[in-house]
Amino acid sequence: MIINSFLKNLYLKSLTPFEILDVKKQHKVTFDNNIDKSLIRLWKHTITKEGSDKAFEEYCSANGLQESDVLSMVSRLSDVEQPVQYPMWVHALERVIQSVEIKEGPDDRPFYELLHPFISYFESQFNVKTKKLELHFCNEDLMAQLKSALHLNLLNIGHQLFFEEFNNFKAVSETEPAHPASDDFYYKKFVNQILKDKYFTLFLKYPLLAKKITLKTCNFLTHITRLFDRLKQDQFEIEYKFDIQLKELKKLSINSGDQHNGEATAILEFDTVKIVYKPVNVGITEAYNLFLDWVNDNLGCGLKSFNVLNKKDYGWLEFIEHEPCRDKNDVETFYERAGILCGVAYFLNSNDYHYDNVIASGNCPVLIDHESIIGPVIQKTDKEGNPVEKIRLGNILDTLLLPPNNQNDPSYICGLGSSTQLETEIYTPKIIDVNKDSMSIRYEKRHTNLYKKNKPILNNKAENLADYQSEFRKGFEKIYNLVVSHKEFLLSEDSPLEKFKDQEVRFVYRPTEVYLKIMKKLNSTEFLSDSLKYGITLELLARCYAVSRSWSPVLDIERKQMLAGDVPVFYTNTLSEYITLPNGVVSDALSLTAFQSIQTKIKNSDSTDFNFQMKLINEVVEL
Q1: How many CB atoms lie within 10 A of CB 391?
Q2: What SS3 state is found at 174?
Q3: Which tens digits make up the pLDDT trace of 499-529?
Q4: Per-residue pLDDT for 614 more than 90?
Q5: Which one of 191, 246, 465, 591 is at 20 to 30 Å from 557 when CA atoms are compared?
Q6: What's the whole-model pTM score?
Q7: How far apart are CA 394 and CA 404, in angstroms?
Q8: Phi, psi dihedrals of residue 134, rounded to the nearest 5°
Q9: Residues 374-390 pLDDT 10s
Q10: What is the band of 589 on the pLDDT scale with cuts at 50, 70, 90?
Q11: DSSP single-letter state for residue 390
Q12: Beta-bridge mates of residue 592
């Protein structure tokens, strides 16, 4: 009964404002009598910096909120009628709590003992599931990798809170008449107290911590189990398609991208080969390959395409290695191919090709992550919400392969990197005296490169675009002339571009960095302890809609995906005139479908457009 009472109390404390409203619609609920009016003021200032009443009214109207709803949403639930249909994370937490035990022996990973019950839950559930599936790829070393990866994910959520609680615990304990027998006396006492209490006190104080680390554990379990199941099913197809043999799986990198819908890209490293797992349809990569093949056939330029096994809901891709150039000729070839590839990305209306999405593979740049290789044009509206008639197609800089010519984004973030911003000094946090009483975070200054695997390397030195401008322009001119001279063919039904029809593509609704900044902010103790403040602060998502006064049902999906621990992601069909949301709601109209945007770019290709794109290139090529 004690655990049932705890779980119910924790669940009620974890509910954010919109979740409270959902529960109220389904159950008879009881609120405490204290409505915190300061939360309404906080809400208004979250929607707009000025706390505009008018903007808040528009926000409430767009979200279907009455005044009574708002008052309920800033009140704290004290009870709800039984039976309550608890979400999955509550049931998982119950099983974690029931199996809590104090881990013996030291560990050199920060707060590992404190998080061990969740890691142990993952391991036991994974073993049960893999035994049923008769999976054989996971060995002892690989399990250790998975447990370490999960530990880092959970630590990322709670490390700030753990440090604060530990320091507070020491401040109180050190006033008591005790004689520490070791340099981890207070640390062990701190961890043991929480585990003996089975997290009850900690989680009731920080209900969002309980929810977030349990959700992360559950999503991790589902993701890894599904990955191994699919690997087993597809092993022979992969070996045949890629002409390889999958023997012992040595390493699994599962944090190779942002988490969407509980899953993320993974890199699997076997004895002699690496492959990439994508938890999305990779048909768009097949279409991209076909177009690259056509470009290669006509220009003889040797752009690299991918080996792909498309399984509709997911897929397997060839891994592209970052390799150095052999000589100066290789670098010149690289930048000519970079010019061609920029032209390809321009005509496909690509975006989001920052330095994480470009690999310098010897003398050839390679675009990876093709979910947004083509994109639609969203219908722009004015401040009154009326459609803006003029359609603005993306230019060469919108691909993000070249340095942006604005003050909002640093030059080095682009796909080909900056030629001037190559390194910087940063202060990075480092945990010292791990799991000792003196454990703390120290910020160390170090030099770091402002490029990743996106630049060509010759003799251990990065080669920059500014020094190969003529080669780059030559490549761009080649692809542009090719498109212009084959315009009629590329717009016909025989075109290689036809493969882009009826494909699913990711629609980048707003920069991922926005979501990540909000997520980081919400991991502070202030919000992990107060679900109402957490949910209200999450409504920072609404600020851009309030500024434009153009509201969209996309906001509701963004909110729900972030509450599930995911970076929001949206997809659209390349032939669709609308964005269809996961709940089936048809959202914002598009000025042009993704496929129409390609066709329009090709139709508009001429000397005037070429000169304009070249002007933009010349403005940024030395940045």
Answers
A1: 13
A2: coil
A3: 999 998 888 778 888 999 999 999 999 999 9
A4: yes
A5: 591
A6: 0.91
A7: 13
A8: 55, 45
A9: 988 876 554 455 555 55
A10: confident
A11: S
A12: 377
What is the amino acid identity at position 195?
A: L
**H or E segment to which residue 533 belongs:** helix 531-538
DSSP per-residue string spanning 24-38: HHHS-EEE-S---HH
121 near 95, Cβ under 8 Å? yes
HEC per residue, 257-303: CCCECCECCEEEEECCCEEEEECCCCHHHHHHHHHHHHHHHHHCCCC
Domain boundaries, the chain: 2-215, 320-420+452-505+597-620
DSSP string for residues in 71-83:
HHHTS-EEEEPSP
Q: pLDDT grade, residue 559 (50/70/90)?
A: very high
Phi, psi of 578 (to 5 degrees): -140, 165
Rg (the chain; Cα; Å)? 27
Average pLDDT, integer, range 123-149: 83
Q: What are the angstrom distances between the C-alpha of 615 and each of 399, 405, 600?
A: 16, 12, 21
Question: For residues 186 and 517, what is the distance between their CA atoms, to the nearest angstrom?
Answer: 33
**Is 221 in contact with 118 (CB distance < 8 Å)?**
no
Instruction: Give percent of the chain above pLDDT 70.
Output: 93
Q: Are 305 and 370 in contact (CB under 8 A)?
A: no
Between the CA of residue 40 and those of 63, 73, 74, 149, 155, what are the distances in Å?
16, 9, 7, 39, 32
Q: How many Å apart are CA 447 and CA 429, to the nearest integer?
A: 14
Pairing assessment for the beta strands 266-270 and 249-253 based on DSSP bridges: antiparallel
Answer yes or no: are the C-beta atoms of 547 and 56 closer than 8 Å: no
> Which one has a higher pLDDT value, 174 or 432?
432
**Number of residues that this document lists for the chain:** 623
Q: What is the 3-state secondary structure (H, E, C) of 432-455?
A: ECCCCCCCEEEEEEEEEECCCCCC
Q: What is the CATH number of domain 320-420+452-505+597-620?
A: 1.10.1070
Pairing of β 570-573 and β 578-580: unpaired
SS3 for 155? helix
- End-to-end alpha carbon distance in the chain: 65
Report the C-alpha gap between 49 and 46 in whole angstroms: 6
Cβ neighbourhood burial of 316 (10 Å; 0-12, 13-18, 19+): buried
595, two tokens: 């496929």
Contact 531, 36 (CB under 8 A): no
Nearest to 499 by CA among 350, 294, 240: 294
As given in the structure block, the two tokens for residue 468 are 């190969």
Beta bridge partners of 381: 387
Tokens of 107: 């560990």
Alpha-carbon gap, residue 206 to 99, rounded angstroms: 21
Coil, strand, or helix at residue 241? helix
Strands (E), 433-551: 440-449, 457-458, 461-462, 504-507
Among 54-63, 74-83, 218-227, whose mean pLDDT is lowest? Answer: 74-83
Whole-angstrom distance, CA of residue 175 vs CA of residue 193: 17
| Tokens (6 digits) for 135 | 């999976």
